Amino acid sequence: MAINLKTVDDKELLYGTKICQGCGAGMAARMALKVLGEKTVLCTPACCFAATTTVFPQSSIFVNNAISAFPGLAATASGMTHAMKALGWDDDYTMLAIAGDGGTIDIGLQGLSGAAERNDDLIYICYDNEAYMNTGVQRSGSTPFDAWTTTTPTGPCSKGEKNKFRKSLFEIMSAHRIPYVATASVAYPQDYMAKVAKAKEIKGCRVIHVSAPCPTGWGYDTAKTVELAKMAVESGLWYLAENEGGEMKLTYKPKELKDPADYLKMQKRFKHLTEEDIQEIREIRDAEWERLKKVLSFE
Amino acid sequence: MSRKAFLSANEAAAHGVRLAKPEIVSAYPITPQTTLVEKIADFIADGESDIDYIMVESEHSAMAAAFGASLMGARTFTASSSQGLLYMAEMLHYASGTRVPIVMVDANRATAAPWNIYGDQRDTMSQRDAGWIMLFAESGQEALDMILQAYKIAEDPEIMTPVMVNLDGFTLTHTYDVVEIPDQEEVDAFLPPYKTDYKLDPEHPLTMAATTGPDFHTENRAQQQLAMEAAKAKIQEVSDEFAKMFGRDYHGLVEEYRCDDAEVALVATGSSAGTTRIIVDELREEGKKVGMIKIRSFRPFPKEYFHSVIDKFKAVGVIDRSISFGAEGTIFQEVKGAMYGSDAKLGNYIVGLGGRDVSRALIKEMFDKLFNMVNGGEEEEVQFLGLRW
User: Fold this and answer.
1) What's the pLDDT tens digit per position in B372-389?
2) Cβ contacts (< 8 Å) between A75 and chain B: which residues?
3) Residue A276 CB partners (closer than 8 Å, separation 6+)
4) Which of A292, B60, B125, B318 has a beta carbon 3.0–4.6 Å from B267's, enabling a disulfide?
5) Domains in chain A: ranges and CATH
């Protein structure tokens, strides 16, 4: 059954949080929990999401939940899912790990690789807000080219983040040959929730990398999270794809890629860019899109 | 019926793990811990154990997986050594701060640099403040028995604190001795399956390991200290119960050996205690009034015991296989603190680093130095013994 406004569960398993207005990470977690339901066990590292949902004596998470260390999330979730089976929990429980881009593709990558290699039975969702937001907007391996962060400040000698390519978690995890890998965006809830629902029905290690804008770190109007996340996809700076059992495909193809300039100009982290800088980003985008056509076999 | 076998301390500890029946083991190999986890893998391969052994990619993940499994209410085990213990240090604190009763073995080994795979206690002593109960075994038999006792201590509702069982690298882990392996039925009677309400629960979802701010963090820490203090009586009680059931008495936190009328005593841990025992016997033959104090529990530290003997000995020496640079041997600092107010002469002997043998001659030299002080001689308080230069 397709997930849409009529069929989506109205039960909230995440509310009363201290997340910022317009937080993409909160949206990603809320939607995932709606699909996965009460029979979910959650684990997060000491990230934005944990800091805003789980401060004793309050918790805004209404499923079993624990916090672990940044490099330890995937392995903690592995231990939890193994124990669930050893202790005879019902088969329909889902082990869910949620972490940001830093906790996943940087400090958490080794542990995630181990969990993937063992094909441990868990869903791992990386909400990507493109920097270390909880510690105050420092760059990560997923920070886009030219973006200002507090560790890639702009100045006479710096235009922001130097790396032209972000680490591709989708391809890294695909190389582990786990049963399901997907990218998604909080601006495409049907696509995202359908992927979570599909992942739920598969056993083994499943990884979903979801684009989740951060108004605080990126510098934009908190009402524009969805609009901005959508523009990233429409301008080819992010893509919606999945890899089910080795078959990689794009799940949404913009009819025509929009100019990234409009997306970039909405955010303070890119306010220093000149027309020349934006042209360079267009060219990087074009080259990346051509590469993705080969990886994901689309025209 | 129990049976006897010729085992290394690592193998003996592995039998202890098999008999304790943890649901989950997660471990990453490191010398000299390897033969312990290999033996567990053998038990599983041979159908002698149905432990779920998670083959993790690092020590950090080993402790993280044990932490996760323990949060669910599973009995868990891991083992490491040296660099591995340092690598998992972050998760040691998660485990103790969340009060999950993981039991681990640390095969005590030097820490790099200089890189060295052999035995000393600088790895474990660097984790002194990680909030774990730290026990030291003297023999393969004690290693096996200590694993069983460790679970009973760790999982006690009043304690709920993880336990690190320390085995001197190579000197114990790779040294063979006759070990009595208890029957499963006997062990089951001593150590029933782990049952706790303190876990994630399908019927009653809750959050564990939550963030605590300044308003609750100190209370969390105070409770850890209370549990550690309570563990002193629990370690004694479990030791006594074990002695009754299995006939082997380890005397709780501290064992005094021939101390009743002793004038000088040496404080030892682990394998050094075995050698010291022999030297005490030899010197007693010569009519010298010597004894040994063997520390089994370093955390919680048997402060009350040492305070109780401040007037008992004329001199007390401490064997340390670690040193806190710029201060003193790690164990010595604590013995000295606990003996505050004593008139006894105190000496600290740093030996056995990076696998160097703690020989009988060295132990004798320590006793000589203690007697020298008793007879009015001067000695440096902290001394490296057996240095090349």
Assistant:
1) 999 999 999 999 999 999
2) 26, 56, 60-62, 64-65, 68
3) none
4) B318
5) 24-296 (3.40.50.970)
